[in-house]
Specification:
It is a single chain. This protein is an alpha/beta fold and 680 residues long. The chain has 20 helices and 14 strands. Helix 18 crosses helix 20. The two termini are 35 Å apart.
């Protein structure tokens, strides 16, 4: 089999060089395409420019179909971006991929592969290897006893293929051309290996890193183990609450708050030097969103992603939907979808969780960088560029950078206002402080950015952990990578009603329990992998957060009982040490949480909301109810995903800003290029 590298040599950003091309006299001139009639979209000059010799041989098949000026401008744009000129035309919908590949196949004397009549035995890959075909865009096939390669060209793949066959035309019999959509459809319908890898890929990599039940273990036995563990935890909590005035749980309670205060007290780093990286040095960036019952939110999400300040030709968007979610699939079908947007249908295999959907998308990721967004997200337009700056500033050991999440509700309940304050404290104060201390981050579920190679190397997401984000932060640390926060914000919607808030918080608490258990069931191994910083953060922050929520009602009960005893005996409050001890512990917890939240609110300019922090005791009671419910769910339905409904609250007005200017356009004159279709 002939192996030809049909991708760019390297998609990693070099972050060097100027952005604008320079003319012979050294002055900068903008890079623009021309319209379909050949009139330049840039200011006219007295003399027409001399035609430049073409190096984009991938466009030879289109000469005579599209105007020469369009082809020349596509070539210049491709040189600016470091991609094939065919990708420029396809991404800007000047020509569709199927039409281009038909023309290219005819020009090269090869055929386009029709997968309709293909049988499974014709594919020269095992089920477990099929994901590599999705990653590479190349599928080896058996045809007439010969091994051929069906290729969906990416980046400069079409140019590389043209150059290869130009050097040796006899290799043409070894290649077939296929569209990305046709290859994706084939892989989805004929590869159960993709589904298995999405559900259990991490467990196959290392079972000790996953919350999945042991392979082959009966469900009842797994449930019995979880029930025994929960019973032991409850017994330990009750014993700790009864020994020595509850000093042990009180200390855990205070240490958790103390760690958050210590992180909050860290000075913020100086903002990085602002520099706009040239488009040619930017990598292809993939944004994934796993959607379930999001018919009302998906259009706004896609609009927000497409409005990011990033070259359209280098932006790759994947939406993953569930097979039973017909309304969301219908909403996507009604949208005007550009070539940069792809839709995958997650397998119906259990568990039905967001991380399983993300895992299913991971083999299809084209970019060397990948980020995750939720359905209600509105990321800052500069977020992708800011994330790349954070990776460069942090060094090669950085495996993830986390943007700040900020609530932008305009309709509120007391719960959503406290949620806003809690988010502000977590993402504006605590996570930046943990970054400064060099501690692992329990990541947020959205707006975290990864090098694709790193994400694949650590096993992707754990499909059986319902806070896959927090778990991934510690797994990155075990593989020797650091996670840091960076100054960019994504706006999100906070739940208003108690039922929605309680369900979401139950899932978070259950996931933190899973995360702690997965990494601490082999504590020596975890210490060896993640070091003392990982051990400290996992136990004091994740474990401490869970224990604090579980112990809070027990401490309140001790306080009430102490007060009742004093009231009946008529003794003074000072004569009962346990009373003031419990009271001070709880008050310190409330006050510490309020300080962290207030600092976060100040950093986002919402300090006026701090008055709602007076309701922090009620909020803590809600957290405790969620924690105890999570402990019960951990036994009976550990994989159950509490779906948070979006689109309930009114939100701050938001505009995607001006639409990206087509390379064929100027700001004032935007002629439409002649579009090539299959019939043309």
């Amino acid at each position: 089999m002939v192996v030809v590298d049909l991708a760019q040599p390297s998609d990693a950003p070099a972050f060097a060089g100027g952005e604008a091309r320079r003319s012979a006299d050294g002055s900068e001139r903008p890079l623009v395409l021309h319209d379909s009639d050949g009139d330049p979209a840039a200011p006219a000059t007295d003399q027409p420019p001399e035609p430049e010799p073409s190096s984009a041989i991938e466009l030879d098949c289109l000469r005579g179909l599209l105007a020469p000026a369009v082809l020349q401008s596509a070539e210049r744009r491709a040189q600016q971006l470091g991609i094939g000129a065919d990708q420029v035309l396809i991404r800007w919908s000047v020509i569709d991929e199927a039409t281009y590949l038909d023309r290219l196949a005819h020009h090269l004397g090869i055929t386009c592969q029709d997968f309709a009549g293909l049988e499974r035995c014709d594919i020269a890959l095992s089920d477990e290897q099929m994901r590599f075909a999705a990653t590479a865009g190349v599928l080896p096939l058996w045809q007439d006893g010969e091994l051929v390669s069906a290729v969906a060209p990416r980046r400069v793949g079409a140019r590389t293929l043209c150059e290869t066959l130009q050097r040796d035309p006899s290799l043409g019999d070894r290649f077939r051309l296929a569209t990305e959509s046709a290859l994706q459809e084939l892989l989805e319908r004929s590869s159960p290996g993709l589904a298995r890898h999405a559900c259990a890929g991490l467990a196959h990599l290392d079972a000790s890193l996953s919350a999945a039940p042991a392979a082959g273990e009966p469900r009842w036995r797994s449930a019995a183990k979880r029930a025994a563990g929960a019973a032991l935890l409850i017994l330990a909590l009750l014993l700790m609450a009864d020994i020595a005035w509850g000093i042990v749980p009180a200390l855990l309670f205070l240490v958790f708050i103390g760690l958050r205060l210590l992180a909050t007290a860290q000075p913020l780093p100086a903002p990085p030097a602002s520099r706009r990286w040239p488009d040619a040095e930017l990598p292809i960036y993939t944004a994934i969103a796993a959607l379930y019952r999001e018919a009302s939110s998906v259009a706004a999400l896609v609009e927000a992603i497409e409005a990011l300040d990033y070259p359209r030709e280098k932006l790759d968007i994947i939406l993953v939907v569930e097979p039973d979610d017909l309304p969301t699939r219908a909403a996507i079908a009604r949208m005007r979808r550009g070539p940069q947007l792809r839709v995958l249908v997650a397998p119906a295999d259990a568990p039905q969780t967001k991380p399983k959907a993300l895992n299913y998308a991971l083999p299809f990721v084209r970019g060397s960088m990948v980020t995750v967004f939720d359905a209600e997200d509105r990321p800052a337009p500069d977020q992708l560029r800011a994330a790349l700056e954070a990776f460069v500033a942090g060094g090669p050991q950085i495996g993830c950078v986390q943007a700040s999440l900020q609530v932008d509700n305009t309709t509120h309940s007391w719960l959503s206002r406290l949620f806003l304050a809690e988010y502000a404290g977590q993402f504006e104060a605590v996570l930046p402080g943990l970054s400064r201390l060099g501690l692992p981050l329990p990541l947020g579920g959205s707006s975290n950015h990864f090098p694709t190679t790193v994400l694949r190397a650590v096993g992707g997401w754990d499909a059986h952990n319902v806070t896959e984000d927090a778990d991934l932060g510690f797994r990155l640390a075990r593989f020797g990578y650091r996670s840091i926060s960076f100054p960019s914000r994504t706006c999100e919607e906070a739940p208003i009603g108690f039922a929605a808030w309680w369900g979401q918080r139950t899932r978070w608490m259950k996931g933190w329990m899973q995360t702690w258990w997965v990494h601490m069931r082999r504590p020596v191994e975890f210490w060896r992998d993640a070091g003392w910083r990982g051990l400290l953060t996992l136990n004091l922050y994740v474990g401490g957060g869970v224990v604090s929520a579980l112990m809070h009602p027990l401490l309140l009960l001790h306080l009430v009982l102490a007060g009742w005893t004093l009231a009946r005996s008529g003794a003074s409050f000072g004569s009962e040490p346990s009373g003031w001890f419990y009271g001070l512990t709880i008050a310190a917890g409330y006050l510490g949480s309020a300080i962290v939240a207030a600092i976060g609110l100040r950093r986002i300019g919402r300090l006026r909301e701090a008055v709602w922090l007076l309701a922090m005791p009620l909020y803590w009671i809600g957290l405790s109810l969620a924690a105890w419910r999570a402990l019960a769910e951990l036994v009976v339905k550990p994989d159950h995903w509490q779906k948070t409904e979006h689109g309930i609250a009114a939100r701050a007005s938001w505009s995607a800003g001006p639409k990206p200017v087509r390379p064929t356009d100027t700001a004032s004159d935007r002629p439409q290029p002649r579009r090539a279709s299959a019939s043309g």
